[in-house]
Amino acid sequence: MIPLRDNVPSRTRPFVNYAIMATCAAVFLLQLSNAELTERLAMIPARVTEGADQTLVRDIDWVRTRAGIEQREVLRPALPAWVPEWATLLTCTFLHGGWLHFLGNMWFLWIFGDNVEDRVGHGRYLLFYLCCGVAASATHLALSANSSVPTVGASGAIAGVMGAYLVLYPRAMVLTVVPLFFILHMAVLPAWLFLGFWFAMQLLQGTFAIGALETGGVAWWAHIGGFVTGVLGIMLLRNRGLRPPVVVRLPRTERLGHYPVYPRRRPF
Hints:
The protein has 268 residues and is an alpha+beta fold.
């Protein structure tokens, strides 16, 4: 499911959220021009636990054969990180594996991040986001300590933001694109349903993929770890000076379903 917008207005300009998105965009553009940057700043679990000298990563090499020049997969020692290995648990959250990965992550952050920053405050939101990202990386590291596949992406940190959104705005409404049998349907879903379904899918796919963590693909458990950290973290902060939510009583004709909570943005 793809969220298009929610009906929760933000009372403050989310400049920290904008700064995070701008940083991810700048780093992604650097990745496109410097392929080495990805490996130098990504979290490679085996490199964290064993060191670069003991870690072999897969690479593509051009080999001359009788049939011509062919691509072959080779193993080589991992390049050492540009930062301390433990710091790659954070730096990897600003890297992405391609345009679709980057745009998808930034879109989810755009939808859910501003409202969490509005409630938490700018400084605490930045610390909260970074902690969720590190926790997500640590979860993946704990379950795939011997993997030599580079781990990149802001998904874990954004999952933490989504977990916080679930706690803070469970009855908000999310305009969603739902693909059913190659047909796109529009639906207005409560946040608890949208985010609960998203988390259930991560948990389901993470459970099935737990035996193949070293082969690459999506780091499902990073998403799970980030989401759980976001839920627990925001519950700890909820009674520590968070701004109250925007609550406006709407006439019945203005209510979305049975959730008379936040003023909607028009059109919705």
